[in-house]
């Protein structure tokens, strides 16, 4: 009765497993809601229970009639792409239901926007009045970012071998950066486990440090979730400005920088017991240099304008906000929209490329910019020496020409997507400056934009159509464009 082509049955089976796994995360807001005496736990319990039942039922139905346990099948590339897109769309919808059911005046589109913003670690929000909001809802927003940071799919890959399914194609489709075949360990499942272990341990340390520094335990957990994931959602309208605590800001800066690095570096440093790994990586050195350069330029642009504020206080404000935006986190302690155009323009530019591949940050990733610069240099050399064979190398690794071409294609799609999003928003009546900053903020998974959508505002003023445009932009940015654009290729649909 349920006999369908094996490849589709396999995808639906894995999809059921993922939905079942995801439903378990609803347990945390249920507990938090009960602790604080709220009634929102009923909503989370019902949605979580229904998702768990649906996921288990689906996986059973589409496993037994189509394939025996114990067989091993590696998913094909198109299977990986299809599964990744389906997972993100379905989980975004499920995640939006608590918002939609809890807030009477919140539309379904706005709820989906908030959920997508969470899962993609963007941090754009339609909500105001966070200080009076239900703790269960607040922890759910933070948890969504934590789940999306490393990725529910990476977690799933760790258990797929137990179910007789290989996960490499899923990893390729979901991972960030141009060199997706690079593994930490011989087996992709072990790689997934290693990444999640590092992610979890960093989160625990971040919670502990925030708590010791003066945050309440609830705020420490929520902000650790959104710091390590580089999400940027806060439990307060003033974001980190609410705490006004230099130590808390220093801790946040440290963990934002750590989360903006390639997690394979963290793994290698721990495995080899050597911090020199961080300096050996060209991408990581460029990442740190760009952060320092952006901080210095922004500080110098502001220094002559405010002579009354103490030097250290001014530097602290600049450092926190620049690093927050450059790493695409999106926290704020000050309305940087009031700074000179050169300052916030540099910050917005840094958000496009600063973070490393394999990090939880957004944007095009630093490694792609490095490859483009090296390719430009190689073309200049070829102009002088047309017959020379000039390899493109990053450290001791030679970059294949197919990777270079993939980077160029990615940058083309990135620019086209940015322009289309910009023009669509402008066509709806949004100002050019706001449209551009919102397009960059969502495509780079940054969150807060400028002008009408600056750090002191939110996206709640936008129309449903504008929110829908930006929701698509966030998904495209998180899945790095090609994972979704491949569906518009004729080759994808050919047998």
Structure description:
- The protein has 495 residues and is mostly helical.
- Helix content is 63%, strand content 2%.
- The chain contains 22 helices and four strands.
- The protein has helices spanning 6-23, 27-35, 41-61, 77-102, 108-119, 135-150, 152-159, 168-174, 188-213, 217-228, 246-259, 263-272, 276-280, 282-302, 311-326, 341-350, 366-384, 401-427, 432-443, 464-478, 482-485, 490-493, and strands at residues 73-74, 165-166, 393-394, 397-398.
- Strands 1-2 form a two-stranded parallel ribbon. The protein has a two-stranded antiparallel sheet with strand order 3-4.
- A hairpin with a 2-residue loop joins strand 3 (393-394) and strand 4.
- The radius of gyration is 22 Å and the shape is globular.
Topology (SSEs and partners):
Elements: H1 6-23, H2 27-35, H3 41-61, E1 73-74, H4 77-102, H5 108-119, H6 135-150, H7 152-159, E2 165-166, H8 168-174, H9 188-213, H10 217-228, H11 246-259, H12 263-272, H13 276-280, H14 282-302, H15 311-326, H16 341-350, H17 366-384, E3 393-394, E4 397-398, H18 401-427, H19 432-443, H20 464-478, H21 482-485, H22 490-493
Parallel strand pairs: 1-2
Antiparallel strand pairs: 3-4
Helix pairs in contact: 1-3, 1-4, 2-3, 2-6, 3-4, 4-5, 4-8, 5-6, 5-20, 6-7, 6-10, 7-9, 9-10, 9-11, 9-12, 11-15, 14-15, 14-16, 15-16, 18-19, 18-20, 19-20
- The helix/strand order is HHHEHHHHEHHHHHHHHHHEEHHHHH
How many distinct beta strands? 4
Based on helices, strands and strand pairing, what is the structural class? mainly alpha
Give the percentage of residues in beta strands.
Answer: under 5%
Q: Averaging pLDDT over every residue, what do you get?
A: 85
Taken from the alpha-carbon principal axes, the silhouette is globular
Spatial order of the strands forming the largest sheet: 1-2
Number of helices: 22
Major β-sheet annotation = 2 strands, parallel
Radius of gyration: 22 Å
Q: Ends: how far apart?
A: 24 Å
Unreliable stretches covering 5 or more consecutive residues: 162-167
Helix content: 55-70%
